[in-house]
Design a protein that fits this description.
single chain, 328 residues, alpha/beta, Rossmann fold, N-(1-d-carboxylethyl)-l-norvaline Dehydrogenase, domain 2, eight-stranded mixed beta sheet, 8 strands
Length: 328
Amino acid sequence: MTTVAVIGATTWGNTVGSLLARKHIDVRIWARTEARVKQFTMLQEKALKDNPDIGRPNFTGNIKAAVSGADVVIFAVPAQTVRHTIWLIKDDITPEMVIVSLAKGLESHDGKRMTEVILEEVSTTRQEMVCVLSGPNLSQEINRELPATSILAASDNSIAVKTQKLFNAPNFAVFISDDVVGVEVCGALKNVIALGAGMVDGLGLGNNAKATLITFGWDEAVKLGVEMGASLSTFYGLAGLGDLITTSAGSLSRNHYVGREVATGRTLAEVKAAMANIAEGPDTAVAVHRLNHKLKIELPIIELIYRILYQSFPPVELANRMSRGFRK
């Protein structure tokens, strides 16, 4: 039997863990405190009474115990904590373990992708053993077993196929790609555009304006991604356009929520402090801003979103600049 360690009892980590457990896979989910272990275990017991078929991952507060003997290690912590979390277990990861990254973000201080971080920190891991799972995946819908799809990206096709089979489920279809860079960049940048879409909704500018921002904003994301080494076609597949639609739509998207709240007058710090979960978009906006000092690409929408979040630009500037094609 395959043994899977999910590092991070986040909303998405728990969803993936339950998805795999429903397939009778041995799943261990690491939570960072014993209090959270007890909380999630109690919630799981309650859910099992209502639906015995939902699957039963095992929660633990011992990260080394979670990884020990695992065939697959899934990193489900937020992007800004991936490097620190890896430090806790990098000596416990063996060359035979497949590593899967779920985080949709870039390191804010240097713009590095999560697979880059993993390969930098885990000397025993080869590039072909590191995968990325991404796509239009809202946890709330997957928990209800509504149909969803995702992309599994890996540089080695045999590893991709093997890991694809692990995740494939009746209502969760997984496709494979060899464009690791593209899948990671799409997952990160769509969060920034979703922030802008939320701002447009918060300002009450309407769907026409939102469609304009998303279209022009995604064109900027494509330019940046291709410059970073991504394949153009990835941006118009599930990892790109598919995830962008889901995240920019509204009600279930954290990043859309953050953008909407900021546009109504709350500060970013206030919005983040009131949230139970982390939205990756604001940190990715910082990463892109810093990356673009080196790359020098015209990114007027992404830069404006950054300035609204961090430099006190009024959100109404989105409307003002839209009429000028987002030129200054």
